[in-house]
Design brief:
Layout (H helix, E strand, L loop, with lengths): L1 H7 L1 H5 L2 H11 L7 H8 L1 H13 L9 E5 L5 E5 L2 H19 L15 H14 L2 E6 L3 H4 L2 H9 L5 H12 L18 H4 L9 H21 L4 E5 L2 E6 L2 H16 L12 E3 L4 E3 L2 E3 L4 E3 L1 H20 L4 H15 L5 H9 L10
Antiparallel strand pairs: 1-2, 3-5, 3-6, 4-5, 7-8, 8-9
Helix pairs in contact: 3-5, 3-6, 6-12, 9-10, 14-15
């Protein structure tokens, strides 16, 4: 009875003043200089009361996304939700996150407190020391391929609160148009791929969280169904480790078959079983059992970024106070690899001089 009452109160907890205020404070972190953040914060109490009313009366509707493309590390459509919608996203995840988090497997590392890319790379190396082979997989166009109906069904497997489900459906249905993916899965007819709504906006906090919900079944299938002790996943990139090469190829086929049930596929040409004594490219690193280096692409990207910072500083559009934390952030990331001499070479090659200062 107590558990039922707690579930019934989820939507009340989501729309409470305390939760909305905490969500607004979390949304503004690192965004205080942004115009939309400043505008919201200028009249924050009134904006939150308006959101609270819209949510409680269920007239809330997401706004229009601002969409743009980025080219690094590959061309992707990024969708930025209006600021007030981002507050709602944080408010939602603050409430439903713990319901799912307690069931996520340990070796899922994306968008979770205490996880992240560095710990995923550490785990990769740990398994590389324990197992002879690794199967590396990545899902083809994961975010544009997420099936809305399947995602809604998965959310309903853990959430019973009608108000929470209404809001989840509203956010999912409010997703902007993503890259069109036409792929057939059994038992599709000719029009099935066109009739089903797909795609989550890259850039939404909810999309990042729902990626873990969507692939939680894969995590359980590999860890418990296939009994693979060595497994690491970061969003749509995952590694499976083992000692029997032939068994690893059978695991590959079973994973492909399982993902078809989620209307997903892997890059099969890249999904090869390789010895762990050779480097595994994972999350911007080349990982060996005993050490790891940054990938060449990672280094090239930072050098281009460094030149852009130099030009901005030379023009006077950025101050040293703006630039220093950006350099420190890359240095801290690079320090998680074996990169002492690399960092010295790259950073010492970036002098910052004002134009006309001689």
């Amino acid at each position: 009875m107590a558990e039922t009452a707690a579930r019934d109160s989820l939507f009340d907890r989501l729309t409470s003043w305390e939760n909305l205020l905490a969500a607004a404070r979390k949304t503004r972190r690192g965004k205080r200089r942004n115009g939309d953040c400043a505008e919201f914060e200028l009249d924050r109490e009134r904006e939150l009361l308006r959101l609270q009313h819209e949510l409680r009366t269920r007239i809330y509707r997401p706004g229009r996304y601002r969409a743009f493309y980025v080219s690094e590390p590959k061309r992707r459509l990024i969708s930025a939700a209006p600021y007030r919608d981002r507050v709602v996203h944080h408010a939602l995840i603050r409430v439903i996150g713990p319901l799912f988090e307690r069931n996520f497997v340990t070796d899922s590392y994306a968008n979770r407190i205490g996880k992240g890319t560095h710990r995923a790379a550490d785990r990769c190396q740990e398994f590389a020391r324990r197992f002879a082979y690794v199967l590396q997989c990545d899902i083809v166009k994961f975010f544009p391929s997420v099936d809305h109906q399947i995602l809604k069904t998965l959310l309903r497997s853990r959430v019973r609160d009608d108000g929470i489900l209404w809001l989840c459906d509203t956010i999912i249905d409010g997703s902007n148009e993503q890259e069109r993916i036409v792929r057939y899965f059994p038992p599709d007819d000719l029009f099935s791929p066109l009739d089903r709504r797909r795609g989550l906006p890259i850039g939404n906090m909810t999309s990042q969280f729902w990626a873990n919900v969507y692939l939680h079944g894969l995590d359980n299938f590999v860890k418990r169904g296939l009994r693979c002790r060595g497994y690491v996943r970061y969003v749509d990139d995952f590694l499976i480790f083992g000692d029997d090469k032939e068994a690893m190829w059978r695991v590959r086929e079973k994973v492909i078959e399982f993902l078809e049930g989620l209307r997903l596929g892997i890059h099969e040409g890249r999904a090869q079983v390789r010895p762990t004594r050779r480097p595994t490219r994972f999350l911007g690193y080349r990982c060996w059992p005993t050490h790891r280096f940054l990938t060449k692409e990672n280094i090239r990207r930072f050098r281009r970024y460094g030149r852009w910072l130099q030009e901005a500083y030379s023009r006077g559009s950025m101050t040293w106070q703006d630039i220093k934390p950006r350099l420190a952030a890359w240095n801290a990331h690079a320090a998680t690899a074996d990169s002492l001499s690399l960092r010295y070479r790259v950073l010492s090659a970036l002098p910052f001089v004002r134009s006309g200062s001689g």
